[in-house]
């Protein structure tokens, strides 16, 4: 009795239906077809996209193709929706003299007309697949424009999806997101936040430990400020995008979200956050004024030292000599205390509600950003002209356009932050409390614990540039030059 291979594949657009019911119906139809032709059979079944060439069950069937006389499928598109792969399979079927049976009829590939029909049906299946993807993509964008969550079935931590496909806050999960953003504002690293969440026993929705990857992703996800964002891509390029604000209740206020994005932007060198417990007041703040790299601290058991710098630049080592740490700390703390008058003057202005200078500063910064934006927008227009004139290739155009769009997006985000800060100039109570706290701390910097002092200093110091201005060598009697110590304020 001839042997047949029954191949069952559930297509991706059927996944939302009853999988078992569909597979059962297809299986029964093909078993009935095998019985009608008096065939014995083996069954191969799986769930996979028709354009996916890595299908375990289909690959297993093709490996054993020489054992069969017939291939039974519900339709040609169940074999493949990819033209090139369908042609490969057709060649293998012809080589093994395999006939195809479907509920619609038989296909004998040894006949030229049937071979042509197979190729034509595969081409139609591929075209239909592309049209389905396009319609689904447009449908998701249309739903997103209405503020509905259509990105995936996986809803972000902190939210659930209601019957209208809108996101609603799940308070038990939302507290985790608020904690992540608050700690980021305090300059706590993602690694440290992950450890703290683990100690608190806070887990993902599936009960798994929240990793630094989860935290990094959450901190940049605009969904937490109430935004629904969707993109449609063609060949890896974004061809359409939806960005809807106030689509649902925000877990993180817009102002706080933008402040976190600014902190993350400033932290691209990976040195801005507190990554470990500070044992010295200037820990992770001292950088080499010669090569720009971080300077490390060490102790001989009694005294702390700033280590000599030996970072290599173009095969040449930076050889700036080390120095006693305590002298640098005293100098920096004194410089900070000298700023007390500036802080008091700023507090005085806030108390008198004189925000003119602050407003002017923000307006100047906003104008500078708008000037940058205009430059990149002009560049975008010029790119289109250059492409139309054939001055740059399609690939060059796509790469430069994508980079330019990222710059425009970043600048727009910074402008939005400046606008928010301008809108909140009247809310001076928080600023007043912060300045009063800072002024109070300046008088007792040496008294508070190094870790607390270190965290406090990082709220207004970006880095301390240090150079001994002496080359390191074994001559301990050589006269040392006066050190350079510059403070880069936030």
UniProtKB/TrEMBL annotation:
Provide the Recombinase domain boundaries: 156-270
**Which SMART domains does the annotation name?**
Resolvase
Keyword line:
Coiled coil
Q: State the PROSITE patterns in the record.
A: RECOMBINASE_DNA_BIND, RECOMBINASES_3
Q: What are the coiled-coil residue ranges?
A: 333-428
List, for all copies, the residue spans of the domain called Resolvase/invertase-type recombinase catalytic.
3-147
User: The organism sits in which domain of life?
Assistant: Bacteria
SUPFAM superfamilies from the xrefs?
Resolvase-like
Q: Please name the InterPro entries in this protein's record.
A: DNA_bind_recomb_sf, DNA_bind_recombinase_dom, Resolv_N, Resolvase-like_N_sf, SSR_resolvase
Leader sequence range is none
Indicate yes or no for the key word Coiled coil. Answer: yes
Does the UniProt entry include the keyword Coiled coil? yes
Q: Report what the protein is called.
A: DNA invertase Pin-like site-specific DNA recombinase
What is the protein's species of origin? Neobacillus ginsengisoli
Q: Source organism lineage?
A: Bacteria, Bacillati, Bacillota, Bacilli, Bacillales
């Amino acid at each position: 009795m001839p042997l047949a291979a029954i191949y069952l594949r559930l297509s991706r657009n059927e996944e939302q239906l009853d999988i078992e019911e569909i597979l059962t119906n297809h299986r029964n139809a093909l078993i009935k077809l095998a019985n009608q032709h008096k065939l014995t059979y083996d069954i191969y079944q799986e769930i996979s996209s028709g354009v996916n060439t890595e299908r375990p069950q289909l690959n297993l069937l093709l490996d054993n193709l020489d054992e069969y006389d017939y291939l039974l499928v519900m339709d040609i598109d169940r074999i493949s929706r990819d033209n090139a792969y369908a042609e490969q399979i057709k060649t293998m079927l012809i080589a093994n003299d395999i006939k195809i049976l479907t509920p619609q009829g038989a296909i004998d590939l040894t006949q030229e007309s049937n071979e042509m029909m197979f190729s034509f049906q595969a081409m139609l299946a591929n075209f239909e697949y592309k049209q389905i993807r396009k319609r689904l993509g447009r449908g998701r964008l249309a739903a997103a424009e209405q503020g509905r969550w259509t990105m995936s079935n996986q809803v972000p931590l902190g939210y659930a999806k209601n019957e209208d496909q809108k996101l609603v806050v799940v308070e038990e999960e939302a507290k985790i997101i608020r904690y992540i953003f608050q700690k980021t504002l305090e300059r706590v690293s993602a690694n440290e936040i992950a450890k703290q969440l683990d100690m608190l026993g806070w887990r993902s929705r599936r009960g798994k430990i929240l990793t630094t990857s989860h935290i990094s992703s959450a901190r940049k996800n605009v969904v937490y400020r109430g935004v629904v964002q969707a993109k449609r891509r063609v060949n890896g390029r974004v061809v359409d995008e939806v960005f809807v604000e106030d689509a649902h209740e925000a877990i993180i206020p817009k102002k706080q979200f933008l402040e976190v994005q600014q902190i993350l932007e400033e932290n691209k060198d990976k040195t801005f956050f507190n990554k470990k417990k500070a044992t010295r007041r200037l820990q992770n703040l001292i950088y080499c004024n010669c090569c720009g790299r971080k300077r490390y601290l060490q102790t001989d058991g009694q005294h702390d030292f700033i280590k000599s710098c030996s970072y290599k630049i173009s095969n040449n080592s930076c050889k700036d000599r080390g120095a006693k740490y305590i002298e640098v700390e005293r100098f920096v703390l004194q410089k900070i205390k000298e700023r007390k008058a500036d802080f008091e003057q700023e507090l005085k202005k806030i108390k008198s509600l004189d925000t003119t200078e602050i407003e002017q500063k923000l307006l100047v910064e906003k104008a500078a950003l708008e000037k940058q934006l205009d430059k990149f927008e002009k560049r975008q227009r010029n790119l289109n002209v250059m492409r139309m004139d054939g001055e740059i290739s399609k690939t060059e155009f796509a790469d430069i356009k994508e980079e330019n769009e990222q710059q425009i997006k970043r600048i727009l985000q910074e402008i939005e932050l400046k606008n928010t800060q301008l809108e909140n100039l009247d809310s001076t109570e928080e600023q007043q409390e912060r300045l009063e706290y800072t002024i109070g701390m300046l008088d007792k910097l040496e008294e508070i614990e190094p870790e607390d002092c270190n965290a406090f200093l990082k709220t207004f110091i970006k880095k301390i540039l240090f150079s001994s201005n002496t080359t390191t060598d074994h001559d301990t009697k050589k006269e040392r030059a006066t050190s350079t110590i510059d403070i880069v304020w936030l």
